[in-house]
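ugh ok fine here u go
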Amino acid sequence: MESNYIKNINQNEIISEKDAKEYVLQQFNNVKTSNRINNLVKFQANNKYMIMAHDQTELKKLGNIVASHKKIQFSSILKEYEEHLEIAMLKDATTKTHTNVIMHVIEHFSKHLNQNEKQRIFSLLEQFRVKNITIGKMLLEISPTIYRFNCTYLASQTYFLLYADVEQRILFYDFNKKDHIK
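structure:
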């Protein structure tokens, strides 16, 4: 389902951290309304890196909650999941947590890169760490590599949808609509 937070973004506007958090919580409300475990599993998969950027400990708890779906009533799972999701989204993403996410992202395709490509990505990562470039710019630079190696799992991540610079966000949004998950 489309989100008002994404649909109403002006092409020159940067999505705020608050908008990103609200978008994730709105998407979770759609999962609750659907009342389907498959939608919760998909939500967890699509929001893995977004949640990781905010709170890696809570991400692990959320994964365990979803994994327990065969043992616990779904309404209880939703309640517990929502509590931990809200805790995770209360924390702000930092340079350190974004760097951690980017390192996880790079692991998906690093074995396919030559030495020059790896050096370029790590140079960009260092520029991000010292705040010479934004997270949006970093993701904008990584996104062609994701498509080059057909990393549909990464392309479906809310993290790229919300943090990549505006010009690239449209590509990820359209790709996300196709419901490709690897």
